[in-house]
Write a structure and sequence with these properties.
Blueprint: E1 20-25, E2 55-62, E3 71-77, E4 90-93, E5 125-127, E6 136-139, E7 146-151, E8 154-157, H1 163-167, E9 171-177, E10 186-193, E11 204-215, E12 228-232, E13 244-250, E14 259-264, E15 274-279, H2 280-283, E16 285-288, H3 290-293, H4 295-300, E17 309-313, E18 322-326, E19 330-336, E20 342-343, E21 349-350, E22 357-363, E23 372-377, E24 385-392, E25 395-400, E26 416-422, E27 431-436, E28 441-446, E29 453-460, E30 474-478, E31 483-487, E32 502-507, E33 513-518, E34 524-530, E35 535-539, E36 551-557, E37 562-571, E38 580-588, E39 604-607, E40 611-616, E41 619-630, E42 635-645, E43 648-658
Parallel strand pairs: 1-28, 29-35
Antiparallel strand pairs: 1-27, 2-3, 3-4, 5-6, 6-7, 7-8, 9-10, 10-11, 11-12, 13-14, 14-15, 15-16, 17-18, 18-19, 19-20, 19-21, 22-23, 23-24, 24-25, 26-27, 29-32, 30-31, 30-33, 33-34, 36-37, 37-41, 38-39, 38-42, 40-41, 42-43
């Protein structure tokens, strides 16, 4: 029998108990026994009063102070007294002390001036919007949203610096996404329509906006102003629609740009979702492709139910990004054909006893290699549900396994709100945090039968060639048999967000795997033979082009009387020939002339046309050959190799002096 001690700093006030639940994953084993008699341990039915008023509404786990430990943010609802109730948000900090898996401590000094987000904050959406390495936070709130810039672990309210945020400050949710591929995350927000209040805790949005991340013209060194602000492009990039409750962002069609899907939150079948295909880098627009790519979804009206929400993940393990969804009564999925066209089978799970759905998250509950979902419901007789993704006769079936993982106890059927999933202990097992309706902070163990393998992938771009935490990137793990795919989530479901460190269950596969990261800028990184059962921090900005590897040479065809010019170089990552640019320039001697007596441009620039081969040691050899060049005079030629992936490129060159001219007469 093994137990894990933890510590709490408890503040008592008025006998009010914090409405929050903590569910943690335990190491995989065939039989798990928990001793929760000792009140100093974090197990069982121990309840803790931390003294904040109102019901805990949502939570997020990020590293606020940059110490390598993930911290916990909790928001509070107080609808009976809005908006005058004092600020009600607690900070809790994760750490490791004496091999204990966690401890929490309330924090207020991380906020500049002690000013925390106001009560009724719907959640926390985190991204590094200024690419300085610190996670910033956007807090949607129907009564005044706030944007916090993280300045070395101190969160500073910078909302007022962006006039667009001040104008559109009543929001229910949002998504971080680099929509224009400029390496800075932009902000998609769902403006709240209080006239479209669906029921007492759920608002909807009738206006959706994309705010572009731009340099702040008012910033100067030493000022207290943020370096980046958010602007609304006129005319707006998208047109809003009624009764939207959830926004999703991912590269659904595989063209390297992040697309947007808005899910309707009303049972009115005339209310439609929206699918916006990102064409900003092509023609500067988002194209409404709702009828082309969501037609079958709309025809089945599967999203025309109270409070439909979703999350993006590869449901069927075929390498494309699909959508798990849930609403008041049903849960299911829609499958992506690889081109962004979504097709739904019949709903996979009929939860006809459910009350209003509150939140939805994705995890692999048993690390078997198939992504499952957990959903919370705010009915007074409901508990959180885990729906396991299984195959039956070739069909995907969602099966309720809540009882098997410790969430089905009738005593816990009190309703729940926001949901937060994160591997806090970095052991591959996802902890689950959710907010209960009975004002309790409680722990439930997640039991895993058998031994399963996993890998955690954390892509980062510290040099700024993509947004720092690579939000919007598509990450694929290939074990040689199955390709599993996730997106680095910038926000999903109901003002929630998945962990920025992506956990993949691998089932019984214990060998190394290949990982491919496709970034919003268009760059692609491929990592081979990564060991499993550990976490990998992947630097997307390691040198792309091997220094000193560029070489320009000549192949002589003496009898034919012509030459081939060959430019070669090496890269540290696998790229595509279409992303290579070669420039050959004659700086001394006659310009290029082919055996067909065609004079080529000088300089000659060619995009693509390279041959890429595996050079070993994780490097790739690029070869470009310019054939059939007549030898008329000795030449000095400069060859420049440019390997470009999206917004990131590296260039190097070599000069070759052709001293011998062999010409057939």
């Amino acid at each position: 029998m093994k137990s894990y001690p933890c510590w709490f700093s408890v503040l008592m006030r008025g006998g009010v108990i914090l409405a929050f639940v903590f569910v943690v994953a335990l190491p995989a084993q065939a039989d798990v026994s928990i001793d929760y008699d000792n009140e100093s341990e974090c197990f069982g039915d121990d309840l803790y009063d931390l003294g904040w008023e109102g019901d805990a509404g949502n939570a997020s786990v990020i590293d606020v102070d940059g110490d390598g430990d993930k911290d916990l943010l909790i928001s509070f609802f107080e609808f009976d007294n809005y908006p005058d109730t004092p600020s009600g948000m607690a900070w809790m900090r994760y750490g490791v002390v004496n091999d204990a898996p966690w401890y929490f401590n309330t924090q207020t000094d991380w906020f500049s001036g002690g000013i925390r987000p106001s009560v009724n904050t719907f959640g926390f959406l985190s991204a590094d919007f200024d690419n300085d390495g610190d996670l910033d936070v956007y807090c949607p709130n129907p009564y005044g949203a706030t944007l916090y810039e993280n300045r070395n672990g101190v969160l500073t309210n910078v909302t007022s610096a962006s006039s667009a945020l001040m104008t559109i400050n009543s929001t229910i949710s949002g998504v971080w996404a680099d929509v224009d591929g400029d390496t800075f995350v932009d902000l998609v927000i769902l403006k709240c329509n209080q006239a479209q209040r669906l029921y007492w805790r759920l608002y909807s949005s009738n206006e959706q906006y994309i705010l572009l991340n731009k340099p702040n013209p008012a910033y100067f060194a030493g000022s207290n102003l943020p370096q980046r602000i958010f602007e609304l492009q006129i005319p707006p990039l998208i047109s809003g629609t009624d009764y939207i409750g959830c926004a999703l962002s991912a590269d659904f069609d595989g063209d390297h740009d992040v697309d947007l899907i808005f899910m309707n939150a009303s049972h009115n079948t005339s209310i439609e979702p929206r699918y916006y295909e990102n064409r900003i880098n092509a023609d500067g627009t988002f194209s409404d492709q709702t009828y082309a790519k969501l037609n079958s979804v709309m025809g089945d009206s599967i999203w025309a139910d109270w409070g439909t929400i979703g999350s993006v993940v590869d449901v069927d393990n075929n390498g494309t990004l699909d959508i798990f969804y849930a609403s008041q009564y049903i849960s299911g999925y829609v499958l992506n054909d690889g081109n962004g066209v979504m097709s739904p089978p019949p709903p996979s799970f009929d939860g006809n006893t459910a009350q209003h759905l509150a939140d939805l998250g994705v995890l692999d509950i048993d690390l078997d290699g198939r992504f499952d979902i957990i959903r919370t419901r705010d009915g007074s007789a409901d508990h959180a549900q885990v729906l396991k993704n299984t195959l039956s006769g070739g069909d995907i079936v969602l099966t309720d396994v809540s009882g098997a993982v410790g969430l089905g106890d009738p005593a816990d059927a009190v309703g729940a709100y926001g949901l937060c999933l994160a591997d806090v202990t970095s052991d591959g097992l996802t902890e689950v945090y959710y907010c209960r309706d009975d004002e309790h902070f409680q722990y439930f163990p997640r039991l895993v039968l058998g031994t399963k393998n996993w890998i955690t992938v954390s892509p980062r771009s510290p040099a700024g060639f993509d947004n720092y935490y690579c939000i919007g990137a598509t990450v694929q793990v290939d074990d040689g048999t199955t390709v599993r795919t996730r997106v680095v989530d910038g926000g999903s479901s109901r003002a929630s967000q998945q962990d920025l460190d992506l956990v993949f269950g691998l089932g019984d596969h214990s060998g190394p795997v290949d990982v491919t990261v496709t970034l919003p800028s268009g760059r692609t990184r491929v990592y081979h033979d990564l060991p499993v059962n550990q976490s990998h921090d992947l630097d997307m900005d390691d040198d792309l082009l091997v220094a000193g590897s560029v070489d320009l040479s000549v192949i002589y065809h003496v009898e034919a009387g012509y030459q081939d010019w060959v430019l070669t170089w090496k890269t540290n990552y696998e790229t595509q020939p279409s992303q290579d640019t070669v420039t050959l320039s004659v700086v001394l001697g006659d310009p290029f002339e082919t055996t067909g007596f065609h004079t080529l441009a000088n300089p000659l620039t060619v995009v693509g046309g390279t041959v890429i081969t595996d050079a070993g040691n994780g490097q790739y050899l690029h070869t470009y050959t310019l054939e059939n060049i007549l030898c008329t005079t000795p030449r000095r030629v400069v060859g420049t190799a440019k390997t470009q992936v999206g917004a990131y490129s590296m260039t190097d060159s070599d000069t070759y002096y052709n001293r011998i001219c062999v010409q057939q007469f």
